[in-house]
Request: fold
Amino acid sequence: MTLYMIGIGLWDEKDISLKGLEAVKKCDKVFLESYTSKLGVPIEDLEKLYGKEIILADRDLVEKRAQEIIEPAKQGAVAFLVIGDVFGATTHTDIFLRAKEAGTKVVVINNASILNAIGIVGLELYKFGKTTSIPFHSENVETPYNVLKENQESGMHTLLLLDIHADDSKYMSIKEALEYLLKIEAKRKEGVFTKDTSCVGVARLGSLSPGIIAGKASDLLKADFGGPLHSLIVPGKLHFVEEDALKAWKA
Reply:
């Protein structure tokens, strides 16, 4: 009678921890949250390793019909799998709280997420400011620009997560994110983000061959980062060690 909330890492079926895999193998039902991120392998690869059928949990199931996940956990063991770490999205905190309120035992098994794996680029994690997301249909959205401005004023690095519409296999690219920021800059003319702004583009983080390129925004606009998922970093004030690290990713 347990709901296991398990982070399964960023890329493939082997990223799950041994603790997480042991929990999955003893579960009666296994759900995979399928709308906030994307794995680099088919679901069938997970099913083969885990030895379990996986039920895809879309936004409607997780946010509006969460009881279909929580109720079975009152009778047996249920796994709720999350790409990256369990609490990478607020919707997962909601299902945790709902299960607790229902009197269901909840066991959380953590894993790597983009919030710590981004350290691969060489920027110090504790110098990242507020993380923000750039959505599709952002014509009237300026929050990401405002967050970037606030972080820059504090000398902090900014991680921008790019929107996905998993149901439509639509994933925002680094080029689209850069164009969005430049559009807002052209409108506001505050010098927060220009074609000369230093950036780091990151693609397929967690895989054995992620795409990472550091350079000016103008350079990244012309770069080919390949397939999803993409993220964008705008560094703040750099330590000399960070400067040396970013040189390794220059195009």
